[in-house]
Amino acid sequence: MKRILFIVNLKSGKNQIKPHFSTIIDMFVAAGYEVTVHTTQAVKDAYEVARSRAAAYDLVVCSGGDGTLDEVVSGLVELEDRPPLGYIPAGTTNDFAKSLGISSNMVTAAANVLGGAPSAIDVGVFNGRYFAYVAAFGAFTDVSYQTPQQMKNSLGHLAYVVEGIKSLPSITPHRMTVEFEDQVITDSFAYGMVTNSISVGGFKSISGKDMELDDGLFEVLLVRMPKNVFELQAIMSAFLMQKVDERYMFYARVSNIRFVSEEDISWTLDGEDGGSCKEVCLSNMQKAIEIIRPVDSAEIEKVKEEYAAAEALAEEERRKEMESKS
């Protein structure tokens, strides 16, 4: 009999999985699996269980938010023989699940675990520590969460701009040197991210819908420190319209990158605390693990359609902006 190790964070997303828990277990058993369930008990528990026990199973399935996925991925990467990973998203934004085309409906996601196909993805390394899809520092990381829904409904993308402008007094400039390939950049940055995802913090990635999760490359976005509210407004608009405003932003695709700062800077890895460092080296482990994705690509196509709609909206916003200036 085939065996599943099911690692579950019951607290993710306000206990979203609880109403579906027994149904999902029954689906796995009916498909011929012997299921071992481990409910996470503390920070790093999912990592330790994946690292120490996953090799004995045919399939590992995790359910939780991006932080839970980060821990399980980090544990699997340390194994010589890595079983494929199934993911049932149960967090607040589930950024990486969107990149993978995995449904936010938990029963549908469980069906994908059984009927999907393993697909190789890259994994990031941050000073020796692994991450699944994003390493970031600085401002803007919580704007999408803090913007009230009522404001979003009434003002649309302007709501995010308003919320971003409100954060200007608290933005701290980070003076650093960034090195990759044959380039060296020294500047003061308000925000930076090294990512392998089409969505980060609820924002669509500037890298676009054609990015690949297994190409060995990160998408790097650095945002220079805004000097006033007008520059901040331009930066927030660029985020929302998925474009690089070269006056205030720098974008590149790299496999390795190094950051050196004048003081300790706090980083987040997949939305979790990554610690504070003066020097950070990031590298890409190409096709490090296999994760199960929808075999018929229906959900992936849905994500691409959402991207196309977002791009059409962004183009309309750009057109209106040009008309207002003229």
Structure description:
This protein is of the alpha+beta class and 326 residues long. The protein is built from 10 helices and 15 strands. The protein has helices at residues 21-30, 45-53, 66-77, 95-100, 106-115, 143-146, 149-155, 157-166, 229-240, 298-325; strands spanning 2-8, 33-39, 59-64, 85-89, 117-126, 129-131, 134-138, 174-180, 183-195, 199-200, 203-204, 218-224, 249-254, 256-269, 272-293. Strands 5, 6, 7, 8, 9, 12, 13, 14 and 15 form a 9-stranded antiparallel sheet that branches. A hairpin with a 2-residue loop joins strand 8 and strand 9 (183-195). Helix 8 (157-166) runs antiparallel to helix 9. The longest helix has 28 residues, at 298-325. The radius of gyration is 20 Å and the shape is globular. Mean pLDDT is 82; it is low at 151-162.
Count up the helices.
Answer: 10
By secondary-structure content and strand pairing, the structural class works out as: alpha+beta
Secondary structure: helix percent: 25-40%
3D shape: globular
How many strands, which pairing sense, and closed or not: the largest β-sheet? 9 strands, antiparallel
Query: Beta-sheet strand percentage?
Result: 35-45%
Compute the gyration radius: what is it? 20 Å
Mean pLDDT: 82
Q: Tell me the total number of β-strands.
A: 15
